[in-house]
Amino acid sequence: MSGEKKTLWSGRFSEGASHSTLAFTSSLQDDSRLARYDVIGSLAHVRMLARQNVIGAKDAKDIEDGLKEILAQVEDRTLPIQQDLEDIHSNIEFILTDRIQDAGARLHTGRSRNDQVVTDVRMFLRDATLDTIEAIMMLEKGLMERAEAYRDVILPGFTHVQHAQPVTVGHWMMAHLQRLQRDAERFIDSYKRLNICPLGSAALAGTTYSIDRTYTAQLLGFEAPCANSIDGVSDRDFVAEYLFAAALTVVHLSSLCEELVYWSSPEFGFLEMADAYSTGSSIMPQKKNPDVAELTRGRAGAALGDLINIMVTMKGLPTAYNRDLQEDKPALFASYDRLIPCLRMTTSMITTMKLNSERMLQACREGFLNATDLADYLVVKGLPFRKAHEVVGAVVRHAIERKCRLEDLSLRELKGFCDLIEDDVFEVLPIERCVARRTSLGGTSPEVFPPQAERARSGLKAQAAFADRERKRIASAFSALLA
Prior knowledge:
By secondary structure, the protein is mainly α. It has three domains: 18-109, Fumarase C, Chain B, domain 1 (Orthogonal Bundle), CATH 1.10.275; 114-206 and 223-363 and 452-470, Fumarase/aspartase (Central domain) (Fumarase C, Chain A, domain 2), CATH 1.20.200.10; 371-429, Fumarase/aspartase (C-terminal domain) (Ribonucleotide Reductase Protein R1, domain 1, Orthogonal Bundle), CATH 1.10.40. The protein contains 19 helices and six strands. The strands form three sheets. It has a two-stranded antiparallel ribbon with strand order 1-2. Helix 8 (169-194) runs antiparallel to helix 11 (237-263), helix 12 (291-315) packs antiparallel against helix 13 and helix 15 packs across helix 16 (385-402). The chain is elongated, with a radius of gyration of 30 Å.
């Protein structure tokens, strides 16, 4: 490369920055993954400049041809990146100018790295958001398939990690699916604020050139240009939104994995993880550890850290661009790179684990999970609920002393606590009946599972339609730009 300048801003300075300053301020290690988006953004910018007669047609063609050559090298990983340049944007501009000389030097007309970089990040994050939605959908589908397969299998429901009431495995899985659907909806909702184009905002004040920002936005598949140039270069709300949605998604995965970890222990014995998603011990030959679930749970902490990182950075900044904003990319990339594998591995665990239906049902017969049903029975007989609660509490205490279950007590014993109890109580107390009778909207009865499943399928269909539409729209815009 023949160019002598090693920074895009060296004209102001009588001597160059120290090597330590260049190393300290470099973002090349992080922003190299934006190279494709940077070239595509530049192609849109130069096409707009030519259309507006800001630069000549020949220069525009030379720039476009040069950028397409660079894009080919980016895609086959042969672009000759100089590590002593401070970022990928400088590298691309210097390579282009070195190859086509003065025409390349016209590329940056009417823009700044401030709007250039944030446009690249928005384009990256559009794809990352769609990747994330699709990964969530795969886990949703995995949960849905298993929920349907186990809609009749009974599992102890827990509160405070204590036996509470019986539910079905399908109902438990649908609870996790509901969380994930909200996660996907958050990403979809954030997308409309993300899909705004800041290119043309320049450094902060706009530009004196007669540019067409709406045209540039259309070329890049954005919904519209940003409304204010200062906000355009400094806005990182869209990064914070992704990090929040990602952190909450990983928190939901952590909650799911927490249950998988302790339910796979011998004390519970509710499930066994597939060998492919377990590991062993270096010293204890018998061990089968749920390490994939544990690591997913553990990585939730890092996801929360990325969110706090960007929020604290944003908190201390005045409007317009500040170099602190360079730190948005490490947190963003780390969060995305962490979340997608966590979603995929959790999907694999859920779809391959073996459930022990007999052990779960056996566990349901311990801990008086039918106590609330006995109280409800008394309410139907006319006893106020609070009094029924007190009566059943005394019955449970008696059963504990006798070391038996509620359904093992005789009618005579039960009537000793309340005269309202009759023979029909034994139709209420079986665990299977406790589950079957909970037919209220959103309840655990298999009878009301189909409407829940149908709503979940509708949500999945809407998510898929959104992701497919946006994929096609972006691909169409980029194809036209690269033609």
